[in-house]
Amino acid sequence: MCGIAGFIVNHESKLDLTSIAKKMVNMIGHRGPDDEGVWVDEKSQVAFGHKRLSILDLSLTGHQPMNSKCCRYTLVFNGEIYNHKDIRAKLQETSTTLLDWNGHSDTETLLAAITNWGVEKTLNECIGMFAIALWDKDEEILTLARDRLGEKPLYYGWQDNTFMFASELKALKVHPDFVGEIDRNSLTLFLRYNYIPAPYSIYKGISKLSPGSFLQFPLKNKELISVTPYWSLTQVITNGQRKPLNCNDGEAVSLLENCLGDAIEDQLIADVPLGAFLSGGVDSSLIVSMMKVRSTQPVRTFTIGFDESEFNEAGYAKEVAKHLGTEHTELYISPQDALNVIPQLPEIYDEPFADSSQIPTYLVAKMASSDVKVALSGDGGDELFGGYNRYIWSRSIRNKTSWLPKSVLHGLGHTLGKISTPTWDRINNSAAGLLPSQYRVVQMGDKIHKVARQLTVNTDFDLYRGLVSQWQNPADVVIGGHELDLQITAESIEKISEDIEHRMMFMDTSTYLPDDILCKVDRASMGVSLEARVPLLNHNIVELAWQMPLHMKIRDGQGKWILRELLNRHVPQKLIDRPKQGFALPIDAWLRGPLREWAEGLLDEARLKNEGFFHPKPIRIAWEEHLKGNNMHNQLWGILMFQAWLEKEY
Predict the structure, then answer these.
(1) DSSP string covering 614-631, please?
(2) What strand order describes the sheet that includes 128-136?
(3) pLDDT one-digit tens code per residue, 336-355
(4) Cys-Cys with 280: which of 133, 240, 316, 453 at CB 3.0–4.6 Å?
(5) Strand 73-81 relative to strand 66-67, pairing
(6) What is the signed CA dihedral for 487, 283, 238, 130, rounded to 10 degrees?
(7) Neighbouring-strand partners of residue 305
(8) Which residues touch 155 (CB under 8 Å, ≥6 apart)?
(9) Can you say whether residue 386 is alpha, beta or left, with left for phi > 0 and alpha for psi between -120 and 50 degrees?
(10) CA pair distance 385, 256, nearest whole angstrom
(11) Alpha-carbon Rg of the chain, whole angstroms?
(12) pTM for the structure as a whole
């Protein structure tokens, strides 16, 4: 795992390319503290930089930037190609020339494959997570590429007259041509989702390369920059529905067991200590149980615990670890431990990012990094196998209301929505003492408003957007902000599937997974020089999941049916069978308590007016309502994370 950066200067300059490239990669030194390298082509004004976290081939034969044997190509690479030994074997069989290997790094394998097969065929052969930059000296073409699901980040774009790229924005910011104008339209998207979806970034002119695609920049004709997909989730879904699994439940579970087992075995390859995150939930427990089967070494597991029982899963994780016989480490953290991380968040996450589980994710990564350099994670199970409550909830609402005319539904939705969230919460609080505990509703106002939005929308795309939005009308909050379109459209959603659950899973896998979940894991782990691997996102598993009918994912009102069935083969059901909890913190209470002064400073009305990004009124209303006990922390956390980021940057 590493950090990469580079640029092409498109103007007459006397810049010291080597010095600039060194500064860029030094800004992301946490991604690779073991080695660094810089390569420059003065004639073409191209510079590459690399920071290395040594995982495979710890010797100097894995040093980057690396040149191909034919001297045509130069490569910098962040990630792992898990099947690179298989690729070497194929190359030995198909190459017309004798291959003479210097070492056993996957970087060298990539260069040999590109030399023999070209870029696109090589990308299709690779199983792994990666961000790649390749310079073709003969054709003078820069190629950037990103893995299929977006595990590894890659930013790129024009600033002034320089085309630049990097694993993280902080590397771009030290280039003398970097302008860094905040994009208010991207900020509007951020307030809706609490992350900025690809291809956008917080800065004008800088984009995120979309997962499963590669960019080519021909120096001789800069107007012909192109971004081409080499893998398409839409096509995977189409193929899966065209050729669905034709087997019974038990056979399907066995198919998944073999496929996931092979993926995990590939990801256990490392020349350094390796472990896994264990929350005690379905996904992480499944990964650890399969590691136990495939590993020849004792499995190390890591868990974060909290004293607040409603947020703590450490006890469940401990029981799973005990059953599986792992070398388990747990760390109970105090509120102060978590609060101490907050000032670091703008630096760790690099652009505004407001998934509050970023805090425990960072803390568990930091703990694991003391003992291992690689940790496997269970992310991806919810998006691929129907784990989020919104899938089941949306189907339930639709089934119960489908008989009503749209005009009636819209009228009912507008009526429910006119009553504010705090008012619903006050009604709920007043009635709570009169109702048995099983009928009491937590955050009733928020839930009613979500139901109201379901009743008023016309498309599943609008329904999904309403369910995952923090601010329903963010353009009314951002001064001069206009909400940009996502790469997904309402029309494209309708072609995916007839099932609303599958449509939502597609949208989550395309947006929320790469731009929130995987961004969170990458920045948290790389912030402490730890490589995180995600076996469930092996593209063979993704393709298998989309061959499965919906009833193998969601059954009897519960998601991830097939994952649970597979886990039951390794772990007693009683250790896992409980409501979905998530990786959350009591941000709502902290904002009224230990974080109140910090938040008040960032949300000060005069400050908001002076900075000129937000209309203060809706923010102050939300803050005042939150202080009264009406939870608005999801909306406020996004504002606070932007404000904290802005304070650090400017």
Answers:
(1) B-HHHHHHHHHHHHTT--
(2) 66-67, 73-81, 128-136, 141-146, 213-218, 226-229
(3) 888 899 999 999 999 999 99
(4) 316
(5) antiparallel
(6) 60
(7) 332
(8) 165, 166, 167, 168, 169, 172, 201, 206, 207, 208, 209
(9) left
(10) 12
(11) 25
(12) 0.92
Dihedral-angle region of residue 57 (phi above 0 means left; psi in -120 to 50 means alpha; beta otherwise): left
The CA distance from 533 to 541, in Å, is 14
Identify which of 466, 445, 442 has the alpha carbon closest to the alpha carbon of residue 390: 466
Question: How many Å apart are CA 229 and CA 400, to the nearest integer?
Answer: 40
- Strand spans (E) along 253-370: 274-277, 300-306, 327-333
Only one residue has tokens 């595990």, namely: 151
pLDDT digits (tens, 9 = 90+) for 371-413: 999 999 999 999 999 999 899 888 877 777 766 677 766 677 7
Q: Please identify which of the residues 2, 126, 259, 519 carries the catalytic annotation.
A: 2
Phi, psi of 479 (to 5 degrees): -70, 120
SS3 128: strand
Q: Let me know how many helices (H) and strands (E) the chain has, helices first.
A: 29, 17
What is the per-residue pLDDT across 567-605, written as a single tens digit (0 to 9) for each?
999 999 888 876 655 556 889 989 999 999 999 999 999
**Alpha-carbon distance 10 to 218, whole Å?**
12
Neighbouring CB atoms inside 10 A of 428's CB total: 18
Annotation marks residue 70 as catalytic: no
